[in-house]
Amino acid sequence: SVGGVSLKEYAATAFRYDPRDRAATWTLAANVAAAVNPDLTYCEISSHHWNYTLIVGKEALGKLKEFHPKVEREFPGTELVGEVYEPFFPELPQQSDFEHRVVPWKDVDAVEGSGIVHIAPGCGREDYELGLELDLPQISPVDGNGRYLADFGWLANQHAGDVAQDISYALKEA
């Protein structure tokens, strides 16, 4: 969690409301960091629709209006930078060798997304470049055919394109 707020719960919610997060769901097993924009304002919110609090960029609040979010507090993104959080899938051996931290990234916005972006340097060019800049670990979860490698637990040998619903369910159950 970040300041007592679970990023797993954030991810489960983001999966439902942010199409960009849905498209990249297969990369969550390779997550090594969460990025925020230090110049943005963030909100910790609660709702009677769930039993936890979420952190989102202030500009993203409109995406959750159907849940009548209550803003518990507002704070700058700099407050999140450096915080440690539990990875999405701590049971995967690749996720247990290092601390997962919130990192700064000026390219994060809360207009299209939630204001928090999971970073998987082994899965895409932008994440790779940020990973090099910040010396983040790289985890490559799939082979050349798009199948998870054998040591990725319950995801092993499944095609990355076929696991979005399973990952969403696993996040909601966590």
What is the succession of H and E elements? HHEEEEEEEHH
Give the terminus-to-terminus CA distance: 12 Å
Tell me about the largest β-sheet.
Answer: 4 strands, mixed
Which consecutive residue ranges, at least 5 long each, have pLDDT under 50?
A: 1-5, 15-22
Q: Beta fraction of the residues?
A: 15-25%
In total, how many beta strands? Answer: 7
Structural class: alpha+beta
Principal-axis shape: globular
Spatial ordering of strands, largest sheet? 5-6-1-7
Please state the average pLDDT score.
84
> How many helix segments?
4
Q: For the CA atoms, what is the radius of gyration?
A: 15 Å
- The helix content is 10-25%
Secondary-structure map with pairings?
Blueprint: H1 7-17, H2 19-23, E1 33-36, E2 41-46, E3 54-57, E4 70-76, E5 84-85, E6 100-104, E7 116-119, H3 125-134, H4 164-173
Parallel strand pairs: 1-6
Antiparallel strand pairs: 1-7, 2-3, 2-4, 5-6
